[in-house]
């Protein structure tokens, strides 16, 4: 039995949303479960940037791999791609079983079966146990040899399947209480996105997580299981991770235990996490920082108590301000998620969000126009009032902005809300960076230097460096690099300052800071390369040649060595 798991593309191209181009972690779990059981399984990511013709790539994979089952991970933005690919698969391999899973088919089974004649089965919600039982029947392990026979499927909870002209729903599946029973995806694949838990105790009206996971009780991997997952991936060369739990710090003791294991293992990794402002404290944040965490994202959503109540997240602003200051103080980037265009949104509520933004002083921010999907309480409310039905998804749209079902909002108005929030953030970001107050804990000083130099590089050479909305990014970067070195010698800070001085043709200060950096990091090729280029700018080619020669095995160094040698030969002629 061969399975092919597919991550389709979104309807609209993704330029800045990197999360839309990676394989959902759930596909890795499903494929690992199949491989661990003895079946053949492969994953095809059609959303990654280098796939120019997803249909052709998919067709070639089906023709070469001959899958018996093709499983698509489907969201509302990818649903049209998934259905188109299902048609392609049916043409190439008529007897292949087409399975959809993920949030969109879980909440809209009737829509998918009416819109996609090629669809055979939907796996609802958590899929490992349900899919395995389905595959065992299709493989004939219960006496069935025809993969299109649905007789035994009715006894597998968690399925919706097509049986002739009838659609059968077998009801909800039992949730896996012990997540450690699942196979380690890291044994078979290399990836960066992880999750230690499933579910969320929150009740956000814009989020489908509570209904998708079937309960508000959060289930966890043990710290031992999760650490093993990270260690195995680190051994494969992965050095940065995105931990995408709805609230990573929900079980504080579990996170502390994991962090202790990471610190003891000294894996030299970094990671991002998502949490809630009411679920962090200084000792926990310091432990996370020492274990490699460099950014925590918080769903702030709004500064208006009225709006937050309607979004199901009535957390006091004071807790948000406290959490952001504590996160930055521990040496991690606090990133804010804001939502605008919510039910009841006005200029006054947006001003409350702007006021909160100024208090939070986030070092990263994402601003989302509120959209609604099946599986959320907001969507259910819109359905009950007759403002929307699942028929809307037959249109060529990715999502449903809330303003389209709200008589008191329109596009121009909501766009102005978003522009006001973004302008405030980018106008004041240098000020937020200048106001960072770090925890006075000597054990954190090396991490403080690392944090400040990372942030400095974002202003000098990263996303903030090319953003026209940010004033004097180089000045902010220089201040951050210098502040980093006031805490601890840091390679990135030395290099960042050297490159800034070089950029502004300040060769003597550049050489001075690079020499200081070399005293601490004599084996750094990057410091030597920057120093060599500075010397070349001063027409000191002999000195540059002597500086660069010890690193001639590196191709980028050899390029500059050749220039030096040519200049010296010209001088001798």
Automatic annotation (TrEMBL):
Its EC number is 2.1.1.-. Pfam families: B12-binding (PF02310), Radical_SAM (PF04055). It is an enzyme of class 2 (transferase). Keywords: Iron, Iron-sulfur, Metal-binding, Methyltransferase, S-adenosyl-L-methionine, Transferase. Residues 8-145 form the B12-binding domain. GO terms for molecular function: 4 iron, 4 sulfur cluster binding; cobalamin binding; metal ion binding; methyltransferase activity. Residues 186-404 form the Radical SAM core domain. One of its GO terms (biological process) is methylation. One of its GO terms (cellular component) is cytosol. PROSITE patterns: B12_BINDING (PS51332), RADICAL_SAM (PS51918). It comes from the Bacteria. Its cofactor is [4Fe-4S] cluster. PANTHER family: ANAEROBIC MAGNESIUM-PROTOPORPHYRIN IX MONOMETHYL ESTER CYCLASE-RELATED (PTHR43409), SLR0320 PROTEIN (PTHR43409:SF16). This is Methyltransferase. It comes from Desulfotignum phosphitoxidans DSM 13687.
